[in-house]
Amino acid sequence: MESKFDPTAVYTVFIKCRGGDILPEYLLAPKFFGFDFRWNEIKFIAKEISDITRDYKDLKVTIQFTVQNRKAEMMVVPTASSLIIKALNEPQRDRKKVKNVRHNGTITFDDVIDIARLLQPRSMSRQLVGTVKSVLGTCNSVGCLIDGKSPRQVINANHEGTLAVPS
C-alpha cells in the first residue's frame, strides 16, 4: 500500500526553465501532484515562476521550491553563466533565429568577485580564490573578457601574484 503524503515534512524540488517564460502546467503537474496540489494551484505556480524569473529573461535558471503543508516557496538559484551573461548587459536576441552565440562583451574584475561571492555558499572551494577561478573558467567558456583581457590571462596573473583576490 502506498504511503500517505506527510503535510508537515519539508520537501525540496528543483526545476530548470528559461527566465520570463510561462511553463505549461502539464510539465509542472508530475512534480506537484504528489504534494497534493490542485490544478488551479499549479497554474498559479506557473504564473509565479514567470514573475520571479523576469530578471533572467531568456536565460536558463534553476528554481528551488520548498514545499511544506501545500505551500510552495520559490527561489531562483542562478548559475555562474547566467550571472555572467546578465552582467554583460547584452541586448535581447531572438533565440529561434540566432543560434550558438559567443558573448563578446567585457566585465570588470569586481563583477567577477561579486558573482563569486554570490556563488560561494554553493561552491565546493574553501576560499573565495577558488570560487573566483571557477567563475573565470566560466567566463572563458562564455567567451567574455575581463577588463579587456582574456580570462586565461587573468587566471595566470592570479597564479603569479600580480592580481590579488580579496578574502
Automatic annotation (TrEMBL):
InterPro entries: Ribosomal_uL11, Ribosomal_uL11_C, Ribosomal_uL11_C_sf, Ribosomal_uL11_CS, Ribosomal_uL11_N_sf. Residues 77-145 form the Large ribosomal subunit protein uL11 C-terminal domain. SMART domains: RL11 (SM00649). One of its GO terms (molecular function) is large ribosomal subunit rRNA binding. One of its GO terms (biological process) is translation. GO terms for cellular component: cytosolic large ribosomal subunit. It comes from the Eukaryota. Belongs to the universal ribosomal protein uL11 family. Keywords: Ribonucleoprotein, Ribosomal protein. This is Large ribosomal subunit protein uL11. Pfam families: Ribosomal_L11. CDD domains: Ribosomal_L11.
